[in-house]
Design brief:
The complex is a heterodimer of chains A (433) and B (717).
Chain A (H helix, E strand, L loop, with lengths): L1 H6 L4 H10 L2 H13 L6 H18 L5 H18 L4 H29 L10 H5 L10 H5 L10 H5 L7 H4 L6 H7 L6 H24 L2 H4 L5 E5 L3 H11 L5 E5 L6 H9 L24 E5 L4 H5 L4 E4 L3 E2 L5 E4 L2 H10 L4 E4 L31 H6 L7 E4 L6 E4 L2 E3 L4 H8 L2 H4 L2
Parallel strand pairs in A: 1-2, 1-4, 2-3, 4-7, 7-9
Antiparallel strand pairs in A: 5-6, 6-8, 9-10
Chain B lengths: L26 H10 L3 E5 L20 E2 L2 E2 H12 L3 E6 L3 H10 L11 E6 L5 H11 L6 E5 L2 E3 L4 H13 L3 E9 L11 E8 L4 E9 L14 H6 L4 E3 L2 E9 L1 H9 L6 H11 L1 H4 L2 E7 L4 E3 L3 H12 L19 E3 L3 E3 L4 E2 L4 E2 L3 E3 L4 E2 L4 E3 L2 E2 L4 E2 L4 E3 L2 E2 L4 E2 L4 E3 L2 E2 L4 E2 L4 E2 L4 E2 L4 E2 L4 E2 L4 E3 L12 H4 L6 E2 L16 H9 L10 H17 L7 H20 L3 H15 L3 H21 L4 H11 L1 H5 L11 H15 L4 H14 L5 H9 L7 H7 L2 H11 L8 H8 L1
Helix pairs in contact in B: 4-7, 14-15, 14-16, 16-17, 16-19, 17-20, 19-20, 19-21, 19-22, 20-23
The chains are: A alpha/beta (433), B alpha/beta (717).
Chain lengths: 433, 717
């Protein structure tokens, strides 16, 4: 049965299946080699795979001791990140899971303290801890923590104002929850593990919904008769535009992003694209923009600058967003952003919060992955192949000053405020683990 | 795109997943089918060739490092990517090392993508034996892939597989699909010495004819293809293609194995099997097909030249994602820096050293001041001194390089020590553990080793490695490439010499190839014979054709006929004919001996069967002066100088010739006393064993007292 054998080719699907049947250590190794072989690529697949794996890891841990859980997750996380350092979402998801465990652990302790009051276990408090009140989280000395805020005081304005679904935001913005509410819900003997698993489930749900949540802001940003320029066949961008297309008429100029993504772009524009979310079972087949009566103009990448003077807004997808507001996106993005800067055209980046990485890019070059040069130069051309070096970068680094606005599932943010979202989502002690 | 079929999406923003993942939605339904037909692969870890000598004396070929990762890893990665579930690995030489390596590797771990990885040992001496062995074991249940253990490819196999299965559904006789990579006429990764020619019917992707053109066979004669006229008449369209890289990835059905078993004399998968099966289409009715790819990478490290080319391809990322920074092996930590520099953590670089483009540096390696490195692969824990220049070199692990050394385009194996101010020229190969003393320069094309063929450490040769050095020069003639199955021929040994592959950097091809080839022929032909080029051609043709016939067991009269024809065409002298015969016979005998036969039986077998071939070259039976017979013996002696156990073979041959009454007693006497047979040290050595036979002859004739006079007698007569 030929179709069966095709389904055998390893990928996200086969990994999720493997996760169900195999022991967890095998699954970890499997994911590592899948990441290395690039059989799982693209931010969302990586994020989903990581989250599912970590859920398995937590489930298989027969302990409720948060310290042990943290150690285990850190261990697995390190290996996953080493396997593919350029897929930064892997690290993001690991950090968020670590944050979840820490939160649960602290809540747990608070509960204990509230029942038994502080007593026997008071330790001499080190001066260091006093000096730096925002950095208390030494998990071995709980007494340090109970007399001050249990986590960095991070109830940011943004998360207060622009929470689209307060119910659902629980895992995505752990920093904004009130500890009191938690305390109330579970008693002293609560199960850290099941809480964390619950949290990871919510992260997975978030990954499924993130595009729609972002698309919900579309009407605020796309107005009638605007000319929008975009790049690559990013689903997030497509959904964003589709949402607006339901109500408004505008024009889209699509740069084809040769050589790494042009086929997909052509397919997206013409509506021949396969539905990539199929195996996640979330989305229905999508009609292309043209069927909504939107004019889509496909241009070569080289024509971007010439077209820019007519463009009202540039909407870009991204691979990952860095803590300083810069982004790592498909090659060609930086030229577009620069062209937009010259013409003072606003650049809007749409990205799920899960792509937001707490890593500060000290060495931009190390973030960029180089792909297969055969897309640029045919390998058949033996004489040339022998004499020249061909480089095919897959990503570009776009500095923060070229971006005007980020739209995440939490709302719109200026690049300079991203650090705030970072600190809402990731615990300081996890940033470099 | 690594795993995606139709979409060329690469950017990360697009979470595109290939349609094959449809299966993920209903895993339950699919599992039953998967169990039914597991996808199997056969890896030929040893291709029974000696092209990587002298390195393969210490290590199996597929464990040789390519960009610091053993070759076999790339092949297994390829299979893992293809979704193969069961792998059968056939080891050849050093199979214990290979097995040990695999047992410790991730492929045997629980997380291995393969459900089963079986290591099969066999006493095979050719690919054909392996295939027949496999057929006997009944392990193969369905369609399977055959790859050799040196394939590097990032090709997703689905396309080829789907096509293969589709074809198979409609036609049960379509038994094999070969994956071929299109490349231009000149390409570094293509084999330059022997180029395969495929005649393909493009409408059905069917391979109709296959031939290998050996460029080193005849330089003046244009290469020739023999295509059956019927092929041309019966097919509307024919592609004759020489621009394909044969990466020896074959998708086979179990029928392929039974065909191997039917023809017990097929040895190599292309030259014999493919050629033979296509030729016998009328008989077996099986068709073989091709799948020509235009994108993705696929190549084989078939020889040292390919080693160089594929290394370059890997560093230039053509094999993406199988690049050093993917860190295929656990424990590797390569990182891609600017200018295709792959560097592991824990490398010590002096402040003033210059690391150029396309370089790989492994962990624990330290590089001294003012050293310049470019286009070089450096393994782990190497120590490179000051003022060193490395260019286009392949340096494996734990190598110590002294100050002021200059290495260009050479391969330096594990544990080599190079003293200060050495020079290693392009194409030199330094095998495991060789030590070179200070100030020695190694000429291009030299191969230095410590290990003898039987695995023991050989005698050091201070002339080559300097005082205090370790190792001796490896001479290819020492044990010829008889087991070189892909193109067993005299020409192929010439190929290795002339092969630009020896000169690893492209710059030196022209100079090196010419003078090395001169050397080689000088060595093998000896100084006695100086032939013009035409006779050289005859010699090549005749000895190759003879040799092939011997191996295939063609009847003596047919061989004789062929030889006469060749001789007439080239107007060759008797001496040349004898020379060709001697070379072919001895080569064949040597091969038989390597196959496990004793020298005596091997010699008897060959000479008994082909007695008349030799008989027809000797015309002095009636004369007293046995010039022809002496000439034959001299040629024999001279040929055996360069062969393994030449002295023993000479003894048995002499005996055999005597018993068959091909050579008479007088001729032995004349030969023994001929000054040409004892004028060099080698000639004397090789005939030492024959001494006893000659003595016995003399005794038998009861001429013991006139041993010395016999020469005078014959002279007088």
């Amino acid at each position: 049965m030929p179709s069966t054998s095709l389904a055998l080719t390893p990928g996200l699907g086969s990994f999720l299946q493997c996760l169900k049947t195999n022991p967890i250590d095998t699954s970890i190794e499997t994911l590592i080699s899948l990441l290395k072989r690039r059989q799982i690529r693209h931010s969302r697949s990586c994020a989903t795979a990581t989250a599912c794996l970590l859920r398995g890891v937590i489930t298989s841990c027969r302990t409720n001791d948060s310290a042990k859980l943290i150690e285990r997750v850190q261990n697995v996380g390190r290996r996953l990140m080493a396997a593919q350092p350029r897929e930064m979402v892997v690290g993001n998801i690991v950090r968020r899971v670590l944050g979840l465990i820490r939160d649960e652990a602290e809540d747990d302790r608070e509960a204990e303290f509230s029942l038994s009051e502080v007593g026997s276990e008071s330790q001499p408090q080190t001066p260091r801890a006093y000096d730096d009140p925002s950095l208390p989280l030494d998990r071995d000395s709980p007494s340090l923590r109970d007399d001050r805020t249990p986590r960095p005081p991070l109830t940011s304005m943004f998360s207060l104002l622009s929470q689209p679904e307060p119910e659902n935001s629980l895992p995505s913005t752990p920093g904004s929850q009130s500890p009191g509410g938690r305390l109330f819900s579970h008693g002293s003997t609560k199960d850290v593990r099941s809480e964390v698993i619950e949290g990871i489930k919510e992260i997975i749900d978030e990954l499924g919904q993130v595009d729609d949540q972002i698309a919900a802001y579309a009407l605020d940003h796309i107005h009638s008769n605007e000319i929008i320029l975009t790049h690559t066949s990013s689903t997030t961008v497509q959904k964003f535009l589709l949402k607006a297309a339901a109500k408004r008429k505008f024009t889209v100029i699509h740069a084809e992003s040769f050589p790494n993504n042009h086929d997909a772009v052509h397919a997206t524009v013409s509506g021949a694209a396969k539905n990539e979310d199929e195996n996640l079972g979330v989305e229905a087949f999508q009609k292309p923009l043209i069927e909504h009566g939107i004019t889509v103009i496909l241009i070569p990448d080289s024509a971007v600058f010439a077209m820019m003077s007519r463009v009202n807004k540039v909407i870009l997808g991204t691979h990952s967003v860095l803590a300083n507001g810069g982004l790592v996106a498909a090659a060609g993005t930086r030229i577009i952003a620069r062209a937009a800067k010259v013409h003072q055209t606003p650049v809007v980046v749409v990205s799920g919060v899960y792509k937001l990485s707490p890593v500060y890019p000290f060495d931009f070059d190390s973030l960029i992955e180089y792909g297969d040069p055969s897309k640029v130069l045919a390998y058949e051309d033996g004489d040339l192949v022998d004499q020249i070096d061909v480089q095919n970068p897959i990503y570009d680094y776009v500095p923060a000053e070229l971006v005007d606005l980020y739209i995440t599932n939490l709302g719109g943010h200026a690049p300079s405020y991203l650090y705030r979202i970072v600190s809402d989502h990731y615990r300081k002690e996890d940033i470099s683990f | 795109m690594w795993f995606e079929n139709e979409n060329d999406t690469d950017s990360d923003v697009v979470p595109v997943m290939a349609p094959k993942q449809k299966g993920g939605q209903k895993p339950k339904a699919n599992t039953a089918d998967e169990v039914e037909e597991t996808f199997q692969a056969v890896v030929l870890a040893d291709t029974f060739e000696t092209r990587f000598e002298p390195f393969t004396r210490d290590k199996p070929r597929c464990l040789l490092p390519l960009a610091n990762t053993p070759l076999i890893e790339y092949t297994l990665e390829f299979l893992a990517n293809a979704g193969v579930e069961e792998v059968f690995l056939y080891g050849g030489a050093h199979s214990d090392q290979l097995e040990k390596y695999l047992n410790a590797s991730k492929w045997r771990a629980l997380s291995s993508p393969f459900k089963q990885l079986s290591f099969l040992k066999s006493t095979s001496t050719s690919v054909g034996d392996v295939m027949r062995d496999l057929d006997g074991k009944h392990l193969i249940t369905g369609d399977f892939i055959v790859v050799s253990g040196d394939v590097i490819s990032n090709l997703p196999i689905e396309g080829a597989l789907a096509q293969h299965r589709k074809r198979r559904e409609s036609d049960k006789n379509a038994i094999m699909t070969m994956v071929l990579r299109e490349a231009g006429l000149n390409h570094r990764t293509k084999s330059s010495s022997v180029s395969p020619v495929f005649v393909i019917d493009p409408t059905k992707d069917r391979c109709l004819h296959y031939e290998e053109i050996d460029h080193h066979n005849n330089d003046e004669q244009p290469a020739r293809l023999n295509i059956d006229s019927e092929l041309i008449l019966s097919n509307l369209e024919l592609d004759i293609r020489q621009d394909l890289i044969d990466c020896s990835i074959d998708i086979c059905t179990p029928d392929v194995l039974s065909l191997w078993s039917d023809s017990f004399d097929y040895q190599s998968p292309r030259k014999h099997y493919l050629h033979g099966v296509l030729k016998d289409y009328e008989l077996n009715g099986k068709t073989l097909h091709t799948y020509i790819i235009k994108d993705h990478y696929a190549a084989r490290v078939r020889n040292l030249k390919a080693y160089d080319a594929v290394s370059k391809d890997i560093l230039a990322r053509w094999t993406y994602p199988l690049c050093p920074d993917t860190n295929l092996l656990p424990g590797h930590s390569y990182d891609l820096r600017k200018g295709s520099l792959y560097q592991e953590k824990g490398v010590t670089l002096a402040r003033s050293c210059v690391i150029g483009r396309r370089t790989v540096i492994g962990k624990g390696t330290s590089i001294g001041d003012r050293t310049e490195i470019k286009n070089t692969v450096l393994g782990r824990n190497c120590k490179v001194g000051r003022n060193v220049k490395l260019e286009g070199a392949y340096i494996w692990d734990n190598v110590v390089i002294g100050d002021g050394v200059d290495v260009r385009g050479a391969i330096i194996a594990d544990g080599v020590v190079l003293g200060n101010n050495c020079t290693v020229a392009a194409g030199a190969l330094l095998s495991y553990g060789v030590k070179i003393a200070d100030g020695i320069s190694i000429e291009s094309g030299k191969r230095i080793t410590r290990t003898r063929i039987d695995g023991t450490v050989g005698k050091n040769d201070p002339a080559v490695v300097g005082e205090g050095g370790e190792g001796y020069e490896f001479i290819h003639g020492e044990e010829e490439d008889d087991d070189d199955d892909d193109d067993v021929s005299v020409a192929s040994s010439g190929l290795v010499y002339r092969m630009p592959g020896l000169s690893l950097s492209s710059v030196s091809i022209s100079t090196l190839s010419s003078d090395v080839s001169d050397n080689s022929w000088g060595q093998s032909e000896g100084s006695l014979l100086s032939d013009d080029e035409e006779s050289d051609n005859f010699h090549h043709d005749a000895s190759i054709s003879l040799y092939d016939s011997l191996r295939e067991g063609v009847a003596a009269d047919v061989v004789q006929l062929e030889l006469v024809t060749l001789r007439m065409t080239a107007n060759a002298s008797d001496n040349q004919v004898r020379r060709a015969i001697v070379e072919a016979f001895m080569k064949h005998i040597e091969q038989l001996m390597e196959g496990g036969k004793g020298a005596g039986p091997a010699v008897n077998e060959v000479f008994n069967a082909y007695k008349e071939v030799i008989e027809r070259t000797l015309f002095d039976r009636t004369k007293d002066q046995k010039n022809d017979q002496v000439d034959l013996l001299l040629l024999l002696q001279q040929d055996l100088v360069n062969r393994n156990k030449g002295d023993t073979v000479l003894l048995f041959t002499a005996k055999s010739l005597y018993e068959l009454e091909l050579v008479e007693e007088e001729a032995y006497d004349q030969w023994w006393n001929d000054e040409r047979s004892s004028n060099t040290e080698e000639m004397r050595t090789v005939r030492t064993q024959a001494q006893q036979f000659v003595d016995w002859l003399a005794d038998a004739e009861e001429e013991s007292s006139e041993e010395e006079d016999s020469e005078e007698e014959s002279d007088e007569e």
